[in-house]
Structures are given as C-alpha cells and as structure tokens.
Specification:
The complex is a heterodimer. By secondary structure, chain A is mainly alpha-helical. Chain A is built from 16 helices and no strands. The radius of gyration of chain A is 20 Å and the shape is globular. Chain A starts with a helix and ends with a helix. The relative contact order of chain A is 0.17. The termini of chain B are far apart.
C-alpha cells in the first residue's frame, strides 16, 4: 500500500511514507511498559528479553536487510560482554562507559572481519561466520587467565547507573536501562533502514550481482552495515554482562548464534519488529516450557522451525500482515 | 623405532577416514542440488543408534548391524527427502538451513527421549579391541579396521562415479543441472538416490564412530561442525576433495590435541578459515 503511494511521489516520497509512525508501533512500545505494573516479579526476564531483542535487531540488519546469513553473530555479542566485564573490573565501573567500551570493541572486530565477509556469499559465507564464531569461543576458552574459561568471568563490578540508580535484585533498574537503550538503538536502526542507504541494502539482498552493475558500491555498503550490526550486537552483549553481572563462555557460543537466528526467523526477517517479537515469544516460551521438561525444549524449537519454514516463510509478523491484507480485501 | 609423530599420523588418518565416511554424502548432495542439509549428522546418528539397539537389545553381532545402520539411515533420509526437503529445493539457503537445523534439534530431543542422554556402549568383536606393535608404534586394531573400511569405500565410490551409468548421470548433474535434465536425465531421481546413499554412508559412519568417539544425543551437532568443515574445505561434489579434506582435518585435529592440547579445536577452525579465504570453493571445488 505504502509502496503504491510512494511510487507516485518518487523514491523520497516512498521513504517519507515509510518513516511515519503507525499506531500499532505506539501500542507496541507502550506495551513494553506493562511489566512494570503487571509482572514486577518478571522484570529480570523482561530485561533479558529487551537485550536479546536488541541482539536480534542487530542480526536483522545484516540478515533481513542485506541478506548476509551469519551463524556466528554471537562473536560480537560475546566480545563486547567480555570487554565490558574486563573494563568494569580493571578500569572503571561506570556502566555507560562500559557499554561504550564494549561497543567499540565489537565494532572494531566487526569492521576488521567485514573485509572478509563482504567477499563471500552462500555456503562459504555460512561456514566462515560459523568458523569465526567457533574460533573465538575456543580462544576465549583457552585464554582462561583472562576470561575465566569455562568457569565464567568473575568479579564484575558495576556502580549505580548515572551515579544514582542501583542495580537491584528485582531488576527495576536493569529493565529500565535495557529498555531505554533498546528504544534508542531501535530509533537509530529505523532511521538507517528508511534512508537511501537502507534501500541500497535491500537492493543487495534482492540481487547482489545487479547492484554493482548499476553503480552501487555493494561491498562498501556491506562493510558499513556489518560494522554497525556488530556494534549493535556489542551494545546488547555489554548490557547483558552488566545487568546479570556475569559473563559465561556461552555468550560467544554457536548456540547463542543459532538461538538468535531462530528468534529472528520466528518473528520475521526484514522487518524491524521481527527480532523484537521473536525474542519476546522465544524467551517467554523458554521460561514457561523449560520449567516442565527442560531437556525437550529443543524438540519444540525444532518443530517450530520446521512449521515456520514450511507454512510461515515470513515469520509471525509476515503471517499477521498476510492476514491483515486478506482482511482488508474482504 | 619410529618417532611418535607416526603414531599421531596413524591416529589422524583413522580419524580422517571416519570424518570422510560421515561427510562424503553431504558433499555430493550439496554439489548436486546446492541443498544445505544441516541434519546430515542426524542421519549418521540414526545409523549409530540402530547399531546400539541391535547389538544391545537383540544380541546381533557388531558386523551384522553395520549394513542395517546403512539401510535404516538411508530409508529414514528418503522419507524426509520426499516429504520435507523437496519442497525447499528452490528456496533460499536460509530456509534450507533453518528447516534442517530444526530437524537436527528434533533429532537431539528424540534421541534423548528414546535412549537417554548417556554415552552408549557397543560390544565390538574381541579381535578389533586389542592393539599390536609395529616398529615401536602402538597400532590399535580398530583404527586399522577404520582405515581399511574408508579406503574400500573410497574405491567403491570412485569406481561407481567414474565407471557406471549412474555415476555419469551424477557427475553430469553436478556439473550442470539444467543441461543434464535437458539431456533427459531425471535429476530429481538421481538426487533422491544419491541422497539416500550419502545418508546411508553417514549412518555407517555413525555406527563405526561409536567405538572411537562415543555416541550421545548431541552427536547431531558435535560432528555436524566437523562435517561442514570437511565439506567446505574439500569443495562441493568432489569425492577426492572430501577424502583429502577429511584427512587434513583429521590429522590437524589429532596433532593439535596431542602437541598443543590447551588450544583444543582451535587449530582445525583456523585451517578451515585459512583454506576458505584462500580458495572460497574449497581445495577441489570448481564453482
């Protein structure tokens, strides 16, 4: 619909139509405040959901918009988590500075690896991202004098946020902090996606060969978006290290990369809210189901994946918008 | 007397042969249909559990269970290929990755449900258990047996692919799928047969792996990573490439764990990244 309107006014009109806030978006963000009043016992979980949603959003930028399949995105998440933890232990315990340091570390790593990423597609790309993640996990395991290895990182020391808000046991500060950061990063991502740069990314996703042919600097675009995505994953990793005050090896592991991919796909790729909805659904389901039979959690995840791929190729949000379009036509 | 490096080499080759059996099927089917099958090791696990079930519950001798491991894994894979995989041949890599990773997740939970999460023992015949001494090297009989099986299967596969009509059809379809079907080759049927054979070999590999590396429900994922490394390093659709890559990875892994144990699997990941950056299509890949 928006596309038809935009076509009449040219590309700038299309972009402008995209940036307008839909009423459902306002409802969504108001709903994120509900846990404060209705589920005060679940604020720690809510904070983890917000952080994971941020991580999923970062993957959506490269996977959903630029079409870069990654099985090792946790590399940046974990790097930032460890960097933020080390910074708080040895340098300064101020949380915002910790987030900046973690983000910078992840962005630097992302920038360095983006030169390799931009050269590959398909299976080689999947294998390189997977191998890079595994390599980093092994390195963190081997460097146990620095990271604590498989015992996890000990001794994170976080001072109150802005000098006043203590990280309490119930997670009031943690959830407020994560939610505000998520919202700010989301605004930035929304702005990025609805810019000419965002359109160029979608062009790369749709046809990676034609884009250079019409004069777009595809590889430079891929490097830029990959670095931004790594930095966003880094913000999420640093937040997790600070709000849980631990970092374990699994923050770098293959399972975290696979989980975030599953969440994004279940929510819907290539939609800003896909990762957010997917993370919420996945983590709430995990919290509820694993209480009943923790060892069979992966059975349901596997089944869900098969069903989504066969019947809902665009995830929950894709299904909903198909339903909405069908409703309007009726 | 030979220095210990030969012992490491021998163990590495035996391990490489095992990786070859587990991965050659995936390499050929990937080359044929470009279908990314991350559930390949789940079929290997089916073979492994078939052997466990037949030896422990029905008292079959170890050798009699090996053909069954092959057949059951092949049969199960055909069922999935006909019902689920074929719907996704024209879909994106991502969809294929997600569907098959979902199946691998299901296989882990199903194995835990039926067999529990513990390591499964398998009684091998007594003459495969011992070891003997050659020029000061300790040669384990089972590893020698693995190398022999691997070598025999390589010969059979290369022979089938090079000298039979079916092999020619497979090679034609790997080289150019459209052209092959234009010449009247039923590519989809060729693929189904190759897929079953490849999964059967994985099942055989799964059964043979128990004695060496054990079998638990996480097999689907632990060995998936090794198999993917072998396939991407060797190049798609190449049997010789798979063999070379499997030996390279097997020897690097054993040597790394023997000489620098604190690095764990670091070395093989590094080998893979270096090879892929140097040759993105793998050592023997053509596309």
């Amino acid at each position: 619909m928006a596309f038809v309107a935009g076509a009449a006014e040219g590309p700038l009109g299309y972009l402008k139509a995209q940036t307008r806030w839909h009423w459902s978006e306002t409802v969504f963000w108001l709903a994120t405040l509900l846990p404060f009043y209705f589920f005060p016992d679940y604020l720690q979980l809510a904070s983890q959901i917000a952080i994971t949603a941020l991580f999923a959003l970062s993957l959506d930028l490269i996977l959903g918009y630029a079409g870069i399949v990654s099985l090792g995105h946790a590399a940046y998440f974990g790097t930032a988590a460890y960097s933020a933890a080390l910074f708080s232990k040895f340098v300064w315990s101020e949380p915002l500075a910790g987030v900046l340091v973690g983000t910078a570390a992840a962005a630097l790593l992302g920038y360095a690896s983006s030169f390799v990423i931009a050269r590959f597609r398909h299976l080689a790309l999947i294998m390189i991202t997977l191998g890079f993640g595994l390599l980093l996990e092994q390195a963190a395991n081997s460097a146990s004098w620095l990271t604590g290895g498989s015992d996890g990182f000990q001794g994170i020391n976080i001072s109150p946020l802005l000098g006043t808000f203590n990280f309490d046991l119930y997670g009031y500060t943690a959830y407020t902090y994560s939610l505000i950061v998520l919202f700010l990063v989301f605004l930035a991502a929304r702005r990025l996606i609805n810019s000419p740069f965002g359109l160029a990314l979608r062009g790369i996703r749709e046809n990676a060969i034609r884009m250079p042919a019409i004069g777009a600097a595809s590889r430079a675009h891929i490097r830029t978006v990959y670095t931004i995505s790594a930095a966003m994953a880094g913000i999420a990793g640093a937040l997790l290290a600070q709000t849980t005050q631990t970092v374990a090896l699994d923050s770098l592991g293959f399972e975290r990369s696979a989980d975030v991919l599953v969440m994004l796909v279940v929510g819907g790729t290539g939609r800003l809210y896909g990762g957010l909805v997917g993370a919420a659904v996945y983590m709430i389901a995990h919290d509820q189901f694993s209480g009943i039979a923790p060892q069979y959690w992966y059975f349901w995840i596997g089944l869900l994946l098969v069903i989504v791929v066969i019947f809902l190729p665009n995830g929950i949000l894709g299904g909903l918008s198909t339903l909405a379009a069908w409703w309007r036509r009726k | 007397m030979l220095p210990p490096v030969f012992g490491v080499l021998f163990d590495g080759i035996a391990y490489g042969m095992l990786l070859f059996l587990l991965s050659v099927g995936l390499s050929v089917t990937l080359g044929l249909m470009n279908f990314v099958n991350l559930a390949h090791c789940a079929f290997a696990m089916v073979g492994g559990y078939t052997t466990v079930l037949l030896t422990n519950s029905f008292g079959w001798p170890f050798f009699a269970t090996l053909p069954m491991a092959f057949l059951v894994a092949a049969a199960v894979s055909v069922v999935f290929e006909r019902t689920l995989y074929r719907r996704l041949y024209r879909r994106s890599d991502l969809d294929q990755v997600l569907l098959t990773i979902g199946l691998a997740f299901i296989s882990v939970a199903a194995a835990a449900w039926f067999f529990g999460t513990t390591q499964q023992p398998v009684p091998t015949p007594p003459y495969l258990r011992g070891s003997f001494n050659v020029l000061g090297l300790n040669i384990a009989a089972y590893r020698l047996f693995l190398i022999a099986v691997g070598a025999a299967i390589t010969l059979v596969l290369v022979g089938t692919l090079e000298y039979t009509r079916f092999g020619a059809q497979v090679r034609a379809a790997v080289d150019n799928q459209r052209m092959a079907s234009g010449l009247g080759i039923n590519v989809e049927r060729t693929f189904a047969v190759t897929f079953a054979l490849g999964s059967g070999l994985a099942g055989l590999g799964g059964a043979l792996a128990i004695e060496l590396v054990g079998l638990d429900p996480n097999f689907s994922f632990t060995y998936l990573i090794y198999v993917l490394i072998v396939v991407s390093v060797g190049g798609l659709g190449s049997i010789v490439g798979s063999l070379a890559a499997a030996l390279l990875i097997g020897i690097s892994d054993i040597a790394g764990k023997y000489y620098v144990p604190e690095l764990g699997s670091f070395l093989i990941y590094l080998v893979m990244l270096v090879v892929l950056m140097w040759r993105p299509v793998g050592l023997f890949g053509r596309r």
